[in-house]
Amino acid sequence: MEEHIHHTRVYFDHTDAGGVVYHANHLKFLEHGRTEWLRELGVEQDWLRDAHQLMFFVNRVEIDYLAPARFNSRLEIRSRLERLGRASMLFDQTIVDADSDRKCCAAKVRIACVSTKTLRPAPLPAAITGRIKHAI
Amino acid sequence: MEEHIHHTRVYFDHTDAGGVVYHANHLKFLEHGRTEWLRELGVEQDWLRDAHQLMFFVNRVEIDYLAPARFNSRLEIRSRLERLGRASMLFDQTIVDADSDRKCCAAKVRIACVSTKTLRPAPLPAAITGRIKHAI
Amino acid sequence: MEEHIHHTRVYFDHTDAGGVVYHANHLKFLEHGRTEWLRELGVEQDWLRDAHQLMFFVNRVEIDYLAPARFNSRLEIRSRLERLGRASMLFDQTIVDADSDRKCCAAKVRIACVSTKTLRPAPLPAAITGRIKHAI
Amino acid sequence: MEEHIHHTRVYFDHTDAGGVVYHANHLKFLEHGRTEWLRELGVEQDWLRDAHQLMFFVNRVEIDYLAPARFNSRLEIRSRLERLGRASMLFDQTIVDADSDRKCCAAKVRIACVSTKTLRPAPLPAAITGRIKHAI
Question: ipTM value of the model?
Answer without folding.
Answer: 0.96
